[in-house]
Design brief:
Strand content of chain C: under 5%
Radius of gyration of chain A: 22 Å
Shape of chain C: extended
Number of strands of chain C: 0
Distance between the termini of chain C: 15 Å
Structural class of chain A: alpha/beta
Chains: A alpha/beta (about 270), B mainly alpha (about 220), C mainly alpha (about 200)
Order of helices and strands of chain A: HHEHEHEHEHEHEHH
Strand order of the largest sheet of chain A: 3-2-1-4-5-6
Helix content of chain A: 40-55%
Helix content of chain C: over 70%
Number of helices of chain C: 8
Distance between the termini of chain A: 29 Å
Oligomer: heterotrimer
Strand content of chain A: 5-15%
Structural class of chain C: mainly alpha
Largest interface: B-C, 115 and 120 residues
Largest sheet of chain C: none
Chain lengths: ~270, ~220, ~200
């Protein structure tokens, strides 16, 4: 009984430590610079090299549960694209994320005075992302005869002459699901377009092999990747602010691991002696 | 004003979920059930507006209204019937009929996967592992070290997954090196998982402090 | 009939999709597009089936007065609220559906549920992440290098850790994930082939 109480106390103490390590840095002024990694820089460079009017496809597949990590990426990339006068074709293939993506598209478009249907189009949601990705490879109109607002795609000025992936400069999938695998397999694998991924930090290490093989040309990983992109476009946002919180909390967790191992080694030594 | 009320509701359900850290309680259960219901309702509305209307209702309206220009419009009735057959699951006597649409889904999914999965996960992954040793694959001696390490890592990792022979002798040594390589990969994943979870917690705290509490206190006390 | 018809459908559709990849003819592409289109329509019903199952389950719970059945009313009320607001006020970002249902309930709850994992992972790191064996030590060292090397404070405090974490991700981690991907690819395509040929039929069990 005493052991259980001690364990519960220890657990709650750790929770409290984590709570403080996230809360306190929120009230402090964070450093504004992060080191930019090549896998993020290459996405920036590729988008930066596009000509005004070219279309960037943003395949957003995340919902509010992951928005703290994913939304800063989408917003930073959108800002970069609009600054370069690129046009955006967006999809939202995660059922719970459809409205979130709509609100982000609207927010950044308003910031830059962009017009729906001319500068950006939101196709919205259809079930079975793998199948939708393949169907879009033939014609965007197959899975999406209408856009998210139920306007026929053919009536949107931006979509004139835009048939499939061949008519977009690149595809960036901002993805917190296994959808990246679908994009690699059923999208890039079949239709051979330039594909980059923006993934949650949990997933990012799983895609370095596709980066090296060239199946992905760039990779933005987690809040850290978003902070790097914010730095590249010189517009610090929530990801840059979050990096300070991240630093402090990582220190605390590494400290906890060291203390835990210290106790473990001490216990072993005492047993031996 | 409405924003403050909505955000206060959001803050309250946030606290209800956080309360689980202390122990399971009715507030947590309330929020948990509420979100399942809200999600399901959200799906229904989104699915109806974004999928059912343009993919099924409109083609049928065009066909029956004589405005159809495509032969495919009336044909949507076939997948619609297949879709409805799924609901036979609820009637035990004819539940087997629901296997028909499922077998279509499985057939299409598996058929598409056979060539593409093999190509993207196997061939396109093996090629760059070997191509590093072609002329021009490495420039400096460090490139050579890296390339050899990658090749050895992939080879040993695969050996670990080879279960058709006992992991003894040479295979045992290679698979042992394989598990070390895999552990480095899992360690990196763990490090990144910590990063991801902390980001999400930061997102919630940022909401509570900067989106909810500060503006609300400002509105209440004019700060 | 009950087993053979589904097997035949899987075989025909599966073989068609697999072969079509190698025959990019106009007619085969037309079939391919139609097959995918139909699948999307079936998908709509499969999600509806999920929702129907959920409602049915809650109804049973209430009927049998199972433990916590009152929370089923909360679930159904949430569902009803979203359907009513969604169909009456629309689903745009200026609707009641979005402002109350999405921003006020769905977003905060789902994101907080995932945020809880930060606490659990910290607790697990303290209590279970021990250097007991060589393998566990490799895992631990790799995790610590990545955790320190990918945050600005760690990069500043420990010189060289940033490059170490970059190297670790790009070389050994990459090799490990490639080995897993190749294994998955071989296993995945073999399983897909077994499904098409009817050797593996999870839906017929």
């Amino acid at each position: 009984m005493a052991d259980i109480k001690a364990m519960l106390f220890e657990r709650r103490l750790i929770y409290f430590l984590i709570f403080l390590s996230v809360l306190i840095p929120l009230f402090m002024e964070p450093p504004k610079t992060v080191r930019v990694t090549p896998e993020v820089e290459v996405v920036y460079d590729r988008i930066d090299s596009l000509k005004p009017g070219e279309i960037v496809m943003l395949a957003c597949e995340y919902d509010p549960s992951m928005s703290a990590e994913m939304s800063p990426m989408t917003i930073a990339v959108l800002r970069h694209c609009y600054r370069k006068n690129l046009r955006i074709l967006a999809t939202g293939l995660t059922s719970n994320g459809v409205s979130l993506i709509e609100s982000e598209l609207k927010q950044v478009a308003e910031e830059f005075g962009k017009v729906y249907g001319v500068d950006y189009v939101y196709l919205g949601y259809k079930p079975y992302p793998g199948i939708v990705i393949m169907a879009m490879g033939e014609d965007f109109r197959n899975p999406f005869p209408n856009d998210y607002y139920n306007t026929p795609v053919d009536e949107l000025p931006m979509m004139k002459g835009v048939k499939n992936y061949q008519n977009v400069a690149l595809v960036l999938t901002v993805n917190s699901t296994s959808g990246i695998d679908y994009w690699i397999t059923y999208g890039q694998g079949r239709y051979k377009f330039p594909l980059a991924a923006a993934a949650t930090a949990v997933m990012a290490p799983n895609y370095y092999n596709y980066l090296q093989s060239g199946q992905l040309f760039g990779l933005i990983g987690g809040l850290r990747g978003a902070a790097e992109y914010e730095q590249l476009i010189d517009t610090p946002g929530s990801a840059t602010r979050g990096m300070f919180v991240q630093s402090v909390t990582h220190m605390v967790i590494v400290g906890l691991i060291l203390v835990g191992n210290g106790i473990f080694v001490y216990g072993r030594l005492r047993k031996r002696s | 004003m409405e924003q403050h009320i909505v955000f206060t509701a959001a803050a309250l359900v946030t606290f209800a979920i956080f309360s689980f850290l202390y122990k399971d309680n009715p507030f947590y259960k309330f929020a948990e059930h509420l979100v399942v219901g809200v999600s399901a309702g959200y799906w229904i509305v989104i699915l109806y507006n974004t999928s059912l209307v343009p993919k099924l209702i409109e083609p049928l309206q065009r066909f029956f209204g004589g405005r159809s220009t495509s032969l495919l419009d009336p044909l949507v009735i076939i997948p619609a019937i297949l879709g409805i057959l799924m609901f036979t699951r609820f009637v035990p006597k004819i539940a087997w009929i629901s296997r028909i649409p499922i077998s279509y889904i499985l057939g299409i999914g598996s058929g598409a996967a056979i060539p593409l999965v093999l190509q993207t996960f196997v061939i396109q992954q093996i090629y760059p592992t070997m191509a590093m040793f072609l002329p021009g694959g490495a420039v400096t001696w460090w490139d050579w070290v890296t390339n050899i390490l990658i090749f050895a890592g992939v080879f040993c990792g695969l050996a670990y997954f080879y279960f058709s022979a006992r992991h003894e002798g040479a295979l045992g040594g290679v698979s042992k090196a394989g598990i070390w390589i895999l552990m480095i990969g899992f360690g990196a994943s763990f490090g990144y998982t910590v990063m991801s979870r902390v980001s999400l917690l930061y997102g919630r705290m940022d909401f509570l402090v900067n989106a909810w509490a500060r503006p609300l206190l400002g509105a209440l006390f004019g700060g | 009939m009950q087993r053979e018809l589904p097997r035949i459908i899987t075989l025909v559709t599966g073989l068609f999709l697999a072969i079509q990849y190698f025959i990019p003819h106009r007619y085969s592409e037309q079939f391919y597009e139609t097959a995918l289109d139909w699948l999307i329509i079936i998908g709509i019903f499969s999600i509806a089936l999920g929702v129907a199952s959920l409602v049915n389950h809650q109804r049973q719970k209430i009927k049998r007065r199972e433990e916590g059945f009152r929370f089923s009313y909360v679930l159904l009320a949430g569902l009803l609220f979203m359907c009513l607001t969604g169909f009456i006020t629309g689903s745009g970002t200026d609707s009641l559906f979005y402002r109350w249902g999405y921003v006020g309930i769905l977003s905060p709850i789902t994101s907080t549920m995932f945020a809880l994992l930060a606490f659990y992972i910290a607790s697990a790191a303290f209590r279970a992440f021990r250097a007991r064996t060589v393998i566990a030590t490799i895992l631990l060292v790799s995790a610590v290098i990545v955790m320190m090397g990918r945050v600005p404070l760690g990069e500043r405090l420990i010189p060289g850790i940033a490059h170490a974490s970059d190297w670790l991700l790009n070389v050994p981690n990459m090799a490990a994930k490639r080995a897993i991907a190749i294994g998955l690819g071989l296993g995945g395509s073999a399983t897909a082939l077994k499904v098409v040929l009817g050797i593996e039929a999870p839906h017929l069990r």
